[in-house]
Every structure is written in C-alpha cells, then in structure tokens.
Specification:
single chain; 282 residues; alpha/beta; Rossmann fold; 7-stranded mixed β-sheet; two-stranded antiparallel sheet; 10 helices
Length: 282
C-alpha cells in the first residue's frame, strides 16, 4: 500500500488546525488564562493516569497540543509528535502563550522511533481519536515499544471499536455500518465538517480511516513485548459520535440518551514494556 493516505489525511488536518484552536471545544483560551486547567481528555483519566511528575513522556499524534500541555502541567517532561505542520504551528503557539516547555516534532507516527531517541521515554501517551488514522495497529504497537524504556508504560484512551462500527441511518436508527476489525483497504469519507463547533468552511474534505478491533489492539501490544496492565471500558466519548442519539453531561462527555449501558463507547488501556521488544509475556 502506498503512503498516499498520509498526504490526504495531512491536508485535512492542516486545514482544520486553526478552526480547532479557535473552537470552544478545545478550550485553548482557558488553558492560557488558567494555569491549573487541564484538557477534558486528560482530566477524564486522572484517576488512572496517576502521578507522572518527573517522567519523560511523548504524546503521539498530539494535534494542537492541549493534552500535551496538560500532561506537562502534571509534571511530565513532554515531547509532542504530529504529522500536521499546521497543527504543530498551533501547538507551539499555545505552548508559548502558556509558558510551557514542550519539544514538538513533525513526523508520521510510524516514523517516531526514527526521529526520536528509542528506549528513552517513561510514558507514551495517545489521546482519543488517534488509531483510526493508522492502517496497521501492529506497526503502531511496535513503534510504542521501541520508544519506551524497559518498564515504561503506554497510556491510551480511544474510541471503542464497538461504537466505531455504528452509524445513524436515514430513519434515525442506529445501524452497524462500518468494520469492527482491521481491513487492508481504508474507509474513505468525504465530509465537509469537523467534530468541533465552528463556522469555518473546508475544501479538503476527504479522509482515509481504519478500524481496529479491541482484541487486535491488545494482541498487537502483547506481540510487541508489552504487558497489559489495565483495560477500562466507558459508556461515553468526548464528542457527539451518534447525532440524535446521545446526550452530553456536565463534563463534556456524550453517551446514549436511552439506556447508555448498552454501548461501549471508549476505552482506557495501559501497558508496560517488558525487558525487550518482542519478549515473551510468559
């Protein structure tokens, strides 16, 4: 498979970076005005994240840096990596305005171990909505293991593949529409909007995306020499994933309006790197 999907997706993210930074959903101005404020994504998982002060961390697919800055506010020495130069432009400006020292690197996530020092990070962090842009979860897992020092950990909250397989049909009913499992060919979407509130109009509207089953993600990490230490499934996500079917709570999380316990909407997963990538779990 060629890497043409990278150029297609990069153009989409480049065009949306400024709109995301200006949207109330990313709360950029609150990050600037309140030194104690944390992004909603990081705040959601604080009980599971624990004390990260003094850790050397890298945020893969960091976008405009709101989560990276939040992790730095919790005491980690952070690096942010993203393939979108316009996203990183916003991230660097936000770091400047908040007085946060973060090293931002432009690269495809699959090249992270080639542009960053391997086996040098205590923490690899990935925020929600990242894995769907990658054609191979196994390649991603190998990259994570290569970046971590022995004993270092991965922390990821992600869209649950159960929710990712669903859509709302023309009759307003929830239908199973998309793959649950990873497939070689991407799902190609042509959508003019974005997931934040904005009046911006976009011209780069095509994206290539992939599904990854929960079992596939776990096994990819284990095959890369990682030990799963935590898996928590949640009934909510931080954006309106199923229009007309979800309600928002006071913390900005969306869940099914009717009987939300029916749907696994997102998950938090932690894993620890063993002594060597590819080492046996036994």
């Amino acid at each position: 498979m060629t890497d043409s999907y990278l150029a297609i997706n990069r153009a989409n993210w480049d065009e949306r970076a400024a709109a995301h930074a200006a949207s109330v959903d990313y709360a950029v101005e609150r990050l600037v005005d309140d030194p104690g404020f944390l992004s909603g994504v990081v705040h959601f998982d604080l009980p599971r994240l624990g004390d990260i002060s003094g850790l050397r961390g890298v945020h893969l697919q960091c976008h405009i840096g709101t989560d990276s800055i939040s992790l730095a506010r919790l005491g980690a020495e952070m690096t942010g990596l993203d393939f979108s130069p316009e996203s990183l432009r916003e991230a660097r400006e936000l770091a400047r305005r908040t007085g946060t020292s973060i090293h931002f690197v432009e690269a495809d996530v699959n090249e992270a171990a080639n542009v960053l020092e391997p086996e040098s990070f205590d923490l690899v962090y990935t925020g929600i909505g990242a894995l769907c842009w990658l054609p191979s979860v196994s390649r991603w897992a190998q990259t994570v293991a290569q970046l971590l020092r022995p004993g270092g950990r991965l922390f990821i909250r992600e869209l649950h593949p159960m929710l990712a397989s669903l859509d709302v049909d023309h009759a307003g009913r929830i239908a199973v529409e998309y793959p649950y499992f990873e497939r070689e060919e991407p799902m190609v979407f042509d959508e003019g909007g974005t997931y934040v509130q904005t009046d911006a109009e976009f011209t780069t509207t095509t994206t290539h995306e992939w599904s990854h089953g929960l079992g596939e993600t776990i096994m990819a990490l284990m095959d890369a020499g990682m030990r799963i230490t935590q898996l928590v499934e949640h009934d909510s996500v931080p954006w309106l994933a199923l229009p007309g079917q979800m309600s928002i709570d006071d913390h900005g999380e969306w869940r099914l309006t009717e009987r939300p316990w029916r749907l696994a909407a997102s998950f938090t997963l932690q894993a620890q790197r063993l002594n060597a990538p590819g080492a046996s779990i036994a």
